[in-house]
Amino acid sequence: MTKNQKILLIIIGFCMVVIVGLVAFNVFMPKHDVKPDDVQVLERSVQEELAEDAKQEETEENKEKEFINIYFIGKNEHNEEVYKAVKRVYKADVDGSKIRYAVNCLMRGPKPEEQQKGVYTEIPASAQIINITEMSDKVVVNLTSAFVTGGGTESLYKRLYQLIKTAKLNTNLPVYLFIDGQRADVVGGEGIMLSQPLSNSSLDN
Description:
Blueprint: H1 3-28, H2 43-62, E1 66-75, E2 81-90, H3 92-95, H4 98-108, H5 112-115, E3 129-134, E4 139-143, H6 152-169, E5 175-179, E6 182-183, E7 186-187, E8 192-193
Parallel strand pairs: 4-5
Antiparallel strand pairs: 1-2, 3-4, 5-6, 7-8
Helix pairs in contact: 4-6
């Protein structure tokens, strides 16, 4: 056996003795009970747990809430442009009828947090509601001319579909679009024909 081999064996033997000693120490020495103060919890982990609890509470709360859907525009999982339904909490005693509240939400546009997710609207910010008249047999949505002005034909089609989908989803009554007090059977500078009452086939001309 060479000198180097002897040294290596001595080192290995020493390491084994140390390991055996440590194991024996842990086995036979009494262990202290762990106290709450001995456990350190990161502030971040506490915040995450609280956030999860808040989500659960919110979910439970939502079971008792009533929602309506407003149609904006966004992208699907294939990055294709689609009409995207966005939820709003509806309170009849605060917001009035569903159709009135839904159209108001539509005209105000998506919220900042929805915009961050890529949701947008083709309805011009300058467009306003003149009035929404609900009758026993129909609903008349009267908007300013800014609703049908500018943006080009494609944009006008999209905003009309946004209104049609939102309106039809939130009332069982026929809905008619008026612009500046006049029934809008032809809209925009391009003269787009709009059959009424509003339906998914209103622009199929």
